[in-house]
Amino acid sequence: MSILVYAEHLDGTCKKAAFEAVTYARKVADEMSLPCIALTIGDVGNAGELGTYGADRVLHAAANNHFDGQHHAKQIAHAATEVNAKVIILSHTSTGKALAGRLAVMLDAGLASGVNSLPDLSTGFRVKRSVYSGKAVATYELSSDMQVLSVMGNTFPAQANGTLAQVEQVESVQHESRITVQSVNKADGSVPLPEADLVVSGGRGFKGPENWDILLQLAEALGAATACSRPVADSGWRPHHEHVGQTGVAIRPNLYIAIGISGAIQHLGGVNNSKTIVVINKDPEAPFFKAADYGVVGDLFEVVPKLTAAVKAYKEGV
Amino acid sequence: MNAMKQLVCISKTPDTTSRISFVEDSTKFDTDGIQYIMNPYDEWYALVKALEVKEQVGGSITVINVGDASSEQIIRKALAIGADDAIRVDKLAEDAGDVAAQIAAVAKNEAYDLIYTGKETIDYNNSEVGSRIAAHLDLPFISYANALSIEGDTFTIARDIEGGSEVLTIQAPFVLSASKGLAEQRIPNMRGIMMAKRKPLEVKEAVAYQATSKIVEYEKPEGRTSCKLVDPDNMNELVRLLHEEAKVI
Ligand SMILES: Cc1cc2nc3c(=O)[nH]c(=O)nc-3n(C[C@H](O)[C@H](O)[C@H](O)COP(=O)(O)OP(=O)(O)OC[C@H]3O[C@@H](n4cnc5c(N)ncnc54)[C@H](O)[C@@H]3O)c2cc1C
Ligand SMILES: Nc1ncnc2c1ncn2[C@@H]1O[C@H](COP(=O)(O)O)[C@@H](O)[C@H]1O
After folding, report:
1. pLDDT tens for each residue of A59-69
2. Handedness of CA A292, A293, A296, A301 (dihedral sign)
3. Are the beta carbons of B126 and A113 separated by less than 8 Å?
4. Which of A121, A151, B115, B209 has its CA 20 to 30 Å from the CA of residue A258?
5. pTM for this one?
């Protein structure tokens, strides 16, 4: 028996989410005294590095780099059978989410998606995940023989203290894909939001897209990704993929700086799992202050440039 | 393009502003005073996209819900917005696997060209049902679609991926989950509401299902210890706190 973890990559480089998933899988493997086996699919340059995050073996199946959930699930299910996987671990990303339910059905496995705890094995198999858009945490008990877990990002920081692994080629499963990927468009230059450690986010308080430079400069000084509230995306001030909250992207970075955002419950639903929250708002009664660790009551047009300057000064100092 | 037979999965969720609390030793969700709505992804994006597809190529739209009689309010709303008919599988689903198994059991005999789900339900945020239905029916699943157009018999779909989007082409049949941007919300009008009363709603019996997951306990996440206010004229202090106290930069 073993723990199988599927390690995602982007354009041939393992994602941060993959290192986190392998770190998590290592811990589960230790808890269950089983080997931890990582699987990569497609052309991956740095698959051996997964060994440093705790994979005892790294398997690789050749495929073209375009994602087809039907094909990838078949490949993962095939590997799971080969290595007699007891638990399959995925990242809770757009890829992982497209695979988790399919694998659960194919393998008749129990599934908990977006988990944020290690399994508790003292009474059955129990894991925790956040529900009601972050307003509660639920403990799930999985009663099947095999389990599928997708791991919430930025929850189990990647830990590299092992050695590089030898990559073993495995048989590629055949699949007649019905999907043709035409293009993959990445928002240029910036850090992908769901993977980011630091996020600077703006709301209607900015008054219009012409003022966004103020936010972008702070983000650049910090090396942070940028986000926004829903009305900002709806008004076309910022692209849709930056919209965070209950109906947008859910994120949990180390630092979330919310500027000119009131803190409506639907917004908080997607960000309140961030480790540290800073709120900058001119209204001391803004509900967001109740969810914040640090607050600045002031006009963003004055405060943010000052903060940017302070961050730059700090960065130059170190 | 031939007329399309479309199925839209709709779920009932607590209104987004609901106060969340638990009863029976924190093992059950407290439904007292909760207002229910149609899951926004299902209503605003999936259903409306299905209407746009029907307006372009013709055909029919069925909405399906797995739930008890209390779901009829959201089903009627979906019919008022423009679905042609509805199916309710009469069961309070045990988990997301149950929902998908019930829907797949219905879809298996119907040969739908397109099956839509929302990106996720805003209560459990599983994001599971779509890929599970696709697995049961061995169909491709396009998650998080934010744009869809049809030319000839080819669908061009853009989907959200981390930090960007992917554009792909595919032919029916397939399952897709609707993300923000796929369509523009429509409000039911009086005529729609009147017509909805006469549209067929079929109640079906559930198929057997063995649940593999169960929620055994709920907790409220720890709140933040009170917010520390920093002087707006002293941003060096904020940077110091973020570095030394919070240790995030
Ligand atoms: C079903 C549903 C789902 C939703 N999902 C989401 C979601 O996923 N994400 C989301 O964000 N919203 C969502 N919303 C919308 C949400 O309810 C709020 O309307 C929205 O978050 C408000 O955005 P905002 O804070 O940018 O704007 P506002 O509420 O208008 O707040 C602007 C803030 O800026 C402050 N401000 C103004 N000028 C300045 C200045 N010069 N300096 C400093 N501060 C200033 C104001 O004091 C105010 O607090 C949803 C709503 C519904 C009904
Ligand atoms: N009880 C239900 N009946 C019908 N469709 C559902 C039900 N629950 C979930 N769905 C569909 O599945 C989608 C994703 O749900 P989930 O996987 O629970 O996040 C929803 O947006 C709905 O389209």
Report:
1. 999 998 788 99
2. negative
3. yes
4. A151
5. 0.89
